[in-house]
Amino acid sequence: MRRFTWFNATSLTLGFAFLYLPMVILIVYSFNASELVTVWAGFSTRWYGELLQNEAFLDAAWVTIQVAVISSTIATVLGTMAAYVLVRAGRFAGRTLFSGMIYAPLVMPEVITGLSLLLLFIGIGLDRGVLTIILAHTTFSMCYVSVVVSSRLVSFDRSLEEAALDLGCTSMEAFRLVTLPIIAPAVISGWLLAFTLSLDDLVIASFTAGPSATTLPIKIWSSIRLGVSPEINALSTLLIAIVAVGVITASLVTKRAALRQEAEERAAERA
Amino acid sequence: MRRLALIAVPYLWLLALFLVPFIIVLKISLSDYALSIPPYSPTLDLSTGWQGIKSFFGALDFENFTFLTTDDLYWKAYLSSVKIAVVATLCTLLVGYPIAYGMANAPDHWRPTLMMLVILPFWTSFLIRVYSWMGILSTEGYLNQLLIGMGLISEPLMILNTNTAVYIGIVYTYLPFMILPIYATLERMDASLLEAAEDLGCSRMQAFWLVTFPLSRNGIIAGCFLVFIPTIGEFVIPALLGGSDTLMIGKVLWEEFFNNRDWPVASAVAVILLLILIIPIILFQRNEQKQREAEG
């Protein structure tokens, strides 16, 4: 007996207005012609033009994308391995420490992760730059990947893998031909999660980046500390648009894949 | 052999880039501030052998921690972080519960879209979401323009750079973390229980407080921890929306490190922050475990 009442409708409307209005305002005012951010002076795409000519922002964006692609890819490999170890490897010496190290970074305040990695890099004399940001991002995002992948591995029917082994696959082949295709959606969402975490990170990157490498969040940070700027509004709008398109496409693709898989399973049952 | 490699690679990575750095923080929190590079002493000198190790450990002490207890800036920052986190968590619950409740009662075919609308902001840059409030809350911002335009106030309100702005920022950015677990428990709830309650003479209000609310307890607890734990060490929100009198420990640590360059004190602040976090984290884990056991 679920009833969709006026109270429900109102709370949903107000709730989503609260969630989306600030972003809508930001987007609208990114097309403001005026230099005064809060005064509307007509429609213009002027700030987008200026943004595309701002070398510093473009450089920072390029660094950010490199860091995000490399760190999320390594994190996906390491995180999937870690998930496999957690779910499948059984008991081994130091297992408790291992699972602790997987879960701890998820709740660790970013300021502490950043500080501790910086002290490590200084301690071993590694110059801060793109490499150190990649190492830092890989470390915390592999933990997120491993949580996502291990939840899929837990619900996975092991007899499929055993069947492959019985039919003469080596364990590597069984992994490649059976396990990997089944856990692939989780691996992909793990990668996406790692990628966005890396794109988004300000605090850890601020600790681990040197003067030679500035990421986009660090660049945005140093300019918004002084107040709202129309250029940042334009940049934010672009980022919001990219994320929205990406998330909606990804969810449509996975939905279609799920439907196809369902249809195949039904066909297989009939056969 | 292959199994060993599978375990060893992620294991060694985490040891080197998570555990070792953390031990370094512990060690530096016990060191003294020094005008040198690196700016602390002692540094471990292995070339002098056993004597070096002994003098290294001899020079470590809890001085920074005693310093933290004597300077009341730190006490106040810890207390005020906890206070801000508690109040903000309760506000998030008040805002989030009706939304989760509305989603659970919405027609079936709306739910995937509603879910997506809740998750979408989570993928959007945290920094940008906090930034979007700066334009709204500033003295000449959109909110003040609106209120003055409507004739409700004559002088602009000072909201940006106060604790109120920090609360708004926290509620806004962490709202999805509160909605999702509550929605999950409400959605799983057996609706016939409500029917039974009403058949037995409960009003709808009573049925809500006697049936729905207690059954969503696990979701509420999970949501509160998911908001509370990251809020305690939050840096971006108090730094952007808060004022100079907004004391939060994440901000203190940042300033201690980047502005004062006092690494030993920054490390000691970090160690105590973790000690404060351990209790809610353990409680959260227990709650999750209990829930898993209850489900089967």
Q: Can you walk through the features of this model?
A:
- The complex is a heterodimer of chains A (271) and B (296).
- Chain A has 271 residues and is an all-alpha fold.
- Chain A has 11 helices and no strands.
- In chain A, 79% of the residues lie in helices and 0% in strands.
- With 296 residues, chain B is mainly α.
- In chain B, 76% of the residues lie in helices and 1% in strands.
- Chain B is built from 14 helices and 2 strands.
- In chain B, α5 packs antiparallel against α8 (163-188), α8 (163-188) runs antiparallel to α11 (217-232) and α11 (217-232) packs antiparallel against α14.
- Chain B is globular and about 80 Å long.
- The mean pLDDT of chain B is 87.
- At the A-B interface, α1, α3, α4, α5 and α6 of A face α1, α4, α5, α6 and α9 of B.
Helix-strand layout with pairing:
The complex is a heterodimer of chains A (271) and B (296).
Chain A: H1 6-29, H2 46-53, H3 55-88, H4 95-107, H5 110-123, H6 130-154, H7 158-166, H8 171-200, H9 203-208, H10 216-224, H11 230-270
Helix pairs in contact in A: 1-11, 2-11, 3-6, 3-8, 3-10, 4-6, 6-8, 7-8
Chain B: H1 2-29, E1 32-33, E2 40-41, H2 49-58, H3 63-70, H4 72-105, H5 111-123, H6 126-137, H7 142-149, H8 163-188, H9 192-199, H10 204-215, H11 217-232, H12 236-241, H13 249-258, H14 263-295
Antiparallel strand pairs in B: 1-2
Helix pairs in contact in B: 1-14, 3-14, 4-8, 4-11, 5-8, 6-8, 8-11, 9-10, 11-14, 13-14
